[in-house]
Design goal:
Layout: E1 7-10, H1 14-27, E2 30-36, H2 43-47, E3 50-55, H3 66-76, E4 80-82, H4 92-100, E5 104-105, H5 110-117, H6 119-129, H7 144-154, E6 158-162, E7 172-174, H8 180-195, E8 200-204, E9 210-218, E10 224-236, E11 239-245, H9 252-268, E12 273-281, E13 287-293, H10 300-307, H11 311-319, E14 336-343, E15 345-346, E16 352-353, E17 360-362, E18 369-373, E19 388-396, H12 399-412, E20 414-416, H13 422-429, H14 432-436, H15 443-447, H16 450-459, H17 465-475, H18 478-487, E21 493-494
Parallel strand pairs: 1-2, 1-4, 2-3, 3-21, 4-5
Antiparallel strand pairs: 6-7, 6-8, 9-10, 9-12, 10-11, 11-14, 12-13, 14-19, 15-16, 17-20, 18-19
Length: about 525
């Protein structure tokens, strides 16, 4: 047992901040929320024991400024920082700065973040560790002529990928030599803009793969366990929209092989904390290392459903220096879970953001339905951040049951004020390819068009939320909604510029992880 954490500052916003706060309450740990000008009345600010402003709305002036976050932790008496996901969660320099400031960083060692965050360094490490990865260059290249020759040897189509990033940014699919040079320049420009690093490398493009990842949890005593797999193949712009656990394509033998490779990958970088090893599986059932996410994943609820474990609680346990309280053989898969990300996006317009005021936000409920939301009715979806409104997840004894429960939950979910991905998620849940489990990362390209979704909506008498939204928006002024929100703010203590922070209560927890 190491240091007991008494107060955690959550260096994030939205639903993940709310998610961390709930676990901290279960464990008797005090919480501090940070907020930009755009988030002054956000739910995570209301939920936390204390909250503190960190600057203007743009993330570059607030959530991405490490000095402001560390200063806020000191001023409020926090002894640890949870980075959530996104923003600075995979920033090795921020992790180091936290430790130098005497704060526990609830995440992996900075060196693990650094090596796995550099895709070429990660590929080199996986090569030495015997973890399979797609053919390609192990290092970034500068000589376009030599790289073009390498691409020919690998065989088109190939991928050009950013060495320092992920999430589909700085990535180009190249189908022929004539497009190679222009694609390299476009990928380097986008990578430099997104990550401040224009290095790119080449990887063989696997056509119609499955995107499958393994959840890892590791303590600081050398114990590294996997919490089984998640399927993340339903994507738009190389970013996930729908996930499930476990994957429907893996049999016991392949699942075991991939789990062993995932643990091997985590051990190679001396990992501790929660992390995810991502793989691609081709049509011949060969699997290849894609990348490691050195943080909690957006889709972690589906793993919590099928294992009965609280991943945030485990992160805190490991950060305190505790030994994991169970062995690999103690972890069992229980049933099936599906998650739909509910974005303020327009599926009829290339999934482009569709922000606005949520004049209606009524979430589904009932047995084995979970909603992780970061915004409430009457609030505006900010233009400055990722447009995710919530994550809707369901659990069932079987995959069939989880799908039907998700269909019911999606029909109950009511949002007005902006376009959302709810209609798209309904479309997927009812599509034969998804229901049969026979799908891949090109589901949208192969099966989805605006016309097909319109036909589906008409055939199934889908509710026309867009018309209701337009009517209500005309009837209810935004200022009225904002005033109603401010009147309902809970009694969270907001730390002012001059206020002196107070000490928090002692942590009391029993570290039980049984499903309630």
């Amino acid at each position: 047992m190491g240091k007991k954490i008494k107060k955690i500052l959550i260096a994030n916003r939205g639903e993940i901040a709310c998610r961390v706060i709930r676990t901290c309450r279960d464990l008797g740990i005090s919480t501090v929320a940070v907020f930009s000008d755009a988030d002054k009345w956000a739910p995570h600010v209301q939920m936390a024991d204390e909250s503190i402003p960190i600057g203007p709305s743009p993330s570059t002036q607030s959530y991405l400024v490490s000095d402001k976050l560390i200063e806020a932790a000191h001023r409020t008496g926090a002894d640890a920082i949870h980075p959530g996901y996104g923003f600075l969660s995979e920033n090795a320099t921020f992790a180091e700065s936290c430790h130098q400031a005497g704060l526990l960083f609830i995440g992996p060692p900075s060196e693990a973040i650094r090596v796995m965050g550099d895709k070429t360094a990660a590929r080199e490490l996986m090569s030495k560790s015997g973890v399979p990865f797609p053919p390609g260059t192990q290092t970034a290249f500068n000589d376009i002529s030599a790289a073009s020759q390498t691409a020919k040897e690998i065989g088109y189509p190939i991928l050009i990928k950013a060495a320092a990033g992920g999430g589909g940014k700085g990535m180009r699919i190249v189908y022929s030599e004539t497009d190679f040079e222009s694609s390299v320049r476009a990928a380097k420009s986008e990578a430099n803009s997104a990550f401040g690093d224009d290095r790119v490398y080449i990887e063989k493009y696997l056509e119609n793969p499955r995107h499958i990842e393994f959840q890892i949890i590791a303590d600081t005593h050398g114990n590294i366990l996997h919490l089984y797999d998640r399927e993340c193949s339903i994507q738009r712009r190389h970013q996930k929209v729908i996930e499930e656990a476990p994957s429907s394509v893996l049999d016991d033998e392949l699942r075991c092989q991939m789990a062993k490779a995932a643990v091997k990958a985590a051990r190679a970088c001396k990992y501790s904390g929660a992390g995810t090893i991502e793989f691609l599986v081709d049509k011949h059932r060969n699997f290849y290392f894609l990348e490691m996410n050195t943080r909690l994943q957006v889709e972690h609820p589906v793993t919590e459903w099928v294992t009965g474990l609280d991943l945030v609680a485990l992160q805190i346990l490991v950060a305190e220096g505790n030994v994991l309280p169970f062995a690999q053989e103690d972890i069992r898969l229980l049933g099936h879970s599906i998650e739909c990300r509910i974005y303020a996006e327009d599926p009829e317009n290339q999934f482009l953001p569709s922000t606005g005021v949520l004049i209606r936000h009524r979430v589904p409920a009932g047995p084995n339905v979970r909603v992780d939301a970061g915004i409430e009715e009457g609030q505006e979806v900010p233009i400055y951040y990722d447009p995710m409104i919530s994550k809707l997840s369901t659990f069932g004894a079987t995959r069939h049951e989880a799908i039907h429960r998700m269909k019911r939950a999606l029909l109950e979910y009511e949002i007005a004020g902006c376009k959302t991905t709810i209609p798209f998620c309904r479309f997927v849940m009812d599509h034969e390819s998804f229901k049969s489990g026979d799908y891949d990362t090109h589901f949208i390209q192969h099966h989805y068009t605006v016309e097909k979704m319109s036909e589906y909506a008409e055939r199934n008498n889908e509710p026309a939320v867009s018309g209701l939204a337009a009517t209500l928006l005309k009837a209810v002024p935004t200022t009225t909604l904002s005033n109603s929100v401010s009147k309902n703010i809970r009694n969270t203590r907001i730390v002012s510029e001059m206020e002196t922070p107070t000490n928090s209560a002692e942590l009391t927890s029993n570290w039980k992880f049984n499903r309630s």
